[in-house]
Amino acid sequence: MKIVLAALNAKYVHSNLAVYSLAAYAKAQMEKLQTEKTQPEQEQWKDTQAGEIQPEESGIEMPEICVREYTINNNLDYILQSIYREKADVVAFSCYIWNIREVLEVAGGLAKAAPEISIWLGGPEVSYQSEKLLRENSFLSGIMSGEGERTFYELVKFWSREEGYGGAGLADIEGIVYRDRQLGIRKTPPRNRISMDDIPFIYDDLSRFANRILYYETSRGCPFSCSYCLSSVDRAVRFRSLSLVERELQFFLDHKAPQVKFIDRTFNCNREHALAIWRYILAHDNGITNFHFEVGGDLLGEEELSLFRQMRPGLIQLEIGLQSVNPKTLKEIRRSMDIGKLKKNMLAIREFGNIHRHLDLIAGLPFEDFPSFQQSFEAAYEMKPDQLQLGFLKVLKGSYMEEKAESYRLVYQDAQPYEVISNAWISYDEILVLKQVEEMVEVYYNSGQFANTLDYLVPFFDSAFSFYRALGEYYDRERLYGIGFKREARYGALRAFAGERFSHHTDFSQEEFDARLTFDYYLRENAKSRPAWAAGSRIEKEAYQAFFKNGGTEEIRLACEGYDSKAAARAMHIEKLPAKLAEALRQQGAVGRGEVKGKEGCKYALFDYEHKNPLTGNALVTVLNHL
Fold first, then answer.
1. CATH number reported for the structural domain that contains residue 117 in this entry
2. CA 585, CA 518: separation in Å to the nearest integer?
3. Pairwise CA distance, residues 214 & 198, whole Å
4. Residue 508 DSSP SS3
5. Is the domain of 590 the same as that of 511?
6. Residue 290 sits in which domain range?
7. Could you tell me the pTM of the whole model?
8. What's the pLDDT score for residue 45?
9. What is the pLDDT of residues 267-276, one digit of tens each?
10. Rounded distance, CA 515 to CA 533, Å?
11. What is the pLDDT of residues 240-276, one digit of tens each?
């Protein structure tokens, strides 16, 4: 008996915790069951002679359970061929909003190529409307609905009955919808939740997760009732014992995992649970591992902030859902939040300079019209997140939002990702404007590559939203969307936009704008080619070479034991910097060290690419008065 658990992830760097968890739980339970079955034979064996019966001598064969991961970017024919070659008896696909179309296409092809294979689905995308899915896809044998570990284990026993594992019939397995040849489509009662402590830790071997994000959960369920979210369906929050969690965290730390992403829906809904974990990773920090948490930003208190202040830059990162600041919208979607406290916490954490903060907004919510969303955007922007994610409402199967679709006059895509097209408060034309704003925010704000330029440019507009809207309209007019831009071209597009907009604006300084643009350009990487707009500000070659040959100046000494002037020149870059800009950057904390003296003349920025900010990836910058 061979069973394949197949996952089609959104990206290669992702891994599918669900299929590994199902496999680990089933294997552990089957081994336990096998031990119980062979125990009487072992006792009889010991009565006759010394020795131990081996599992293969019991006459009971363990089923083979394999996990196979792909991405939706793989050629679907390749995925079909790969799964077909497994020659499995059962293939079960993990289904989500991002992969259901691809899963059904692959599963349909597999059923034609190997009609003897039993094909099952599971996951949040198929846990609702399961009977409809079976009616529409005759090649499916069944669907696991809801929490899957125990259900999958009982199905494994059922599928393996010929190998000696009895087990219940399908009608007795809770949490499934299946096809019965005589009775048609049948549905069993929902599955009761299992203890989080009963779920095995899947990361015994990290080699199979090389170069991928590790996902980890310490709780299931969510105490909140947000109408757009499936987590609100399960409000009974369960937690993994801290003794287990600490042991597993130490495993990640000992193995120096680059990143561990907690998938707990609101990680800090239980304050003491969250504090205990944050205390542990602070006390046992290995200097490498980053931990990602999705938190309620307004639930953070002084004790949490005190812990955060002590953390190494990059130890943790926080994802926070704002979604909207419209009180009527928040009430309608059943979301309770102290926006004032959230803003206070966001700005406080920003001052620590050690934690990446990701903030989410959702367009298309009830009572959120275009002006209202603009206000939500401005409120979010004022919180100065490191990333501002402008998302669009997705009407998920089984959510309360889906139930209210008619009353909200919600128009949304029939196929994945079921994204909003319009509703009673916002038109598709307005959604399209927000799509442009979203892309401009992603390119120019979230990339972090234009921060100092944006600080100068955005105040020339009535609001941050109006800036990104105008930039989006410029891209549309110049037909710049869909172009595979090189990095320098993005800077050039922004410069062309600003030049067109402010060529006759008396307060706009092209010199300062170009200086900031150049500063941002070199801040992230030591570019080999000099951008066209910065051609006239190049430092004299002789002065540049002399700086490194002499090991720096009195202001900064580079020379030390083993100093190599050529290697230093390759690892650094020097750029002219107007004194006014140098002072502004120093005050903003954009430079790492150095002091600006005087108000006139040209200063210099020394970019050190071997010492980068672990949060932003920006070079360490020293402002110098002289070369």
1. 3.40.50.280
2. 13
3. 20
4. coil
5. no
6. 196-426
7. 0.90
8. 41
9. 999 999 999 9
10. 9
11. 999 999 999 999 999 999 999 999 999 999 999 999 9
